[in-house]
Amino acid sequence: MTATPTPLPVVLIHGWPVTERHWRDLLPLLDKAGFEAVPITLPGLGVVSEQSQSLRKADLARWLSDELDRRGITRCALIGHDWGATVAALLAAERGSAVTALIVEEEILPGINVELFAPGVDCYPTWHGPFNRVPGLAEQLVPGREPAYYGAFLEQSAGPAGLEAHTMRAYIDAYSAPGVLEAALGYYRSRSEDIRDARALATNPVLTPVLAIGGRFAMGAAVADGMRGVAADVTRFIAEKSGHYPLEQEPELVGGAVVQFLHQHNPPTAAP
Questions:
Q1: Domain 9-265 is found in CATH 3.10.290.10
Q2: Could you give the maximum distance between any two Cα atoms of the chain, in Å?
Q3: Which of 34, 11, 89, 51 is nearest to 183 (CA)?
Q4: Domain segments of the chain as ranges
Q5: What is the tens place of the pLDDT at every residue in 213-251?
């Protein structure tokens, strides 16, 4: 009797200011390809985090590791977007060969200095980081103006292709809920610690194969350039029509590249 293959869990970790909706087009592709999609929302990203929760990315990687242990996931692939990719990279470095593939979508790890090229450098906004890091500023100015604040970032960062109007509305609504603004600001205010942790990967690099996905109208080739400083095996993929959200803006093309990379680095295994 032939054993039934065990689907590999693929853990999906979104960033700011989006929700699990970011994965809506990827989920059926993963299912069809025989993988088990496991979307996980990090504390504070579209939801209120516990008051005592540290939002230092290394601490979030440990939180995620504990969450995977709780779910009985010992071997998996990781896909992270934006802040979710920084957490995924730190977790991949910690778990080693237990992470079979790491896919980084539109993220440059804190403190990893690489150059953005045109047209991305002219499209991707740079105002939100400094604004979010100033203690008390966003708390005073954003409440009641969430559509303008989040809408401006989402519109600018998406580039010419944009995002669907109902998706924009869903993201703005999620981050307009009471307590969510304050919960998410901590992601920006742990910068000095995050820089130290990310730069430490230069001496303890990620050995897991990495697919670095950049949108041409956002971070582009800088995603792969940045990961090459902290990972040993990096493959670059540029989504030519996308901004900061390639898996939403070119779902078939980018999703197909993701599935191909997962298959390449995850040969089927049989259940015992």
A1: no
A2: 65
A3: 51
A4: 9-265
A5: 999 999 999 999 999 999 999 999 999 999 999 999 999
CA pair distance 186, 27, nearest whole angstrom: 29
> In the chain, which residues have pLDDT < 70?
1-5, 51, 267-272
User: What is the spatial distance between Cα 227 and Cα 181, in angstroms, rounded to a whole number?
Assistant: 29
Please answer whether residues 220 and 117 qualify as being in contact, where contact means their C-beta atoms are separated by less than 8 angstroms. yes
Percent above pLDDT 90 for the chain: 91
CA dihedral 118, 18, 39, 27 (to 10 degrees): -70
Pair 7, 17: CB distance under 8 Å: no
User: Residues 55, 65: contact at Cβ < 8 Å?
Assistant: no
The Cα–Cα gap between 141 and 136 comes to 9
Token pair 């692939």 in the structure block, residue: 77
pTM: 0.95
Could you read off the pLDDT of 55-77 as tens digits, one per residue?
A: 999 999 999 999 999 999 999 99
Phi, psi torsion values for 83, nearest 5 degrees: -55, -30
Q: Please, what is the average pLDDT of the chain? A: 94
